[in-house]
Amino acid sequence: VFRSSGHSTGLAGAPKTSWPELVGLTAGEAEKKVKEDFSRAEIQVVPPNHFVTTDYRTSRVRIHVDSSGKVERPLRTG
């Protein structure tokens, strides 16, 4: 199943699980877009040089930002 943007959503009705198109946006802009696509997402903004746990959670989306607060890598669930 594909959205009009061309990004696959996986199974019909399943939430989107990755957002490569958000690289370069602010953390706030990225969070808003993720919540539009996946309303139950638990957002974590990760500042530069911070460590995160390695556990996997299907509802978590980490937003890794650079020193200017811009998204520096593609977002995904986990």
Compose a concise summary of this entry.
The protein is of the alpha+beta class and 78 residues long.
Describe the overall structure:
Belongs to the protease inhibitor I13 (potato type I serine protease inhibitor) family. The strands form two sheets. The protein has a two-stranded antiparallel ribbon with strand order 1-4. A two-stranded parallel ribbon has the order 2-3. The protein is 14% helix and 18% strand. It has one domain: Trypsin Inhibitor V, subunit A (Trypsin Inhibitor V, Chain A), CATH 3.30.10.10. It is globular. With 78 residues, the chain is an alpha+beta fold. The protein contains one helix and four strands; from the N terminus they run βαβββ. The relative contact order is 0.24.
Helices, by number, come to 1
In the CATH hierarchy, the architecture is: 2-Layer Sandwich
- Rg from Cα: 12 Å
What is the helix content? 10-25%
**Distance between the terminal alpha carbons, to the nearest Å?**
21 Å
By oligomeric state, this entry counts as single chain
Strand order within the widest beta sheet: 1-4
Low-confidence stretches: 1-9
Q: What tags apply to this protein structure?
A:
single chain; 78 residues; Trypsin Inhibitor V, Chain A; two-stranded antiparallel ribbon; two-stranded parallel sheet; 1 helix; globular; disordered N terminus
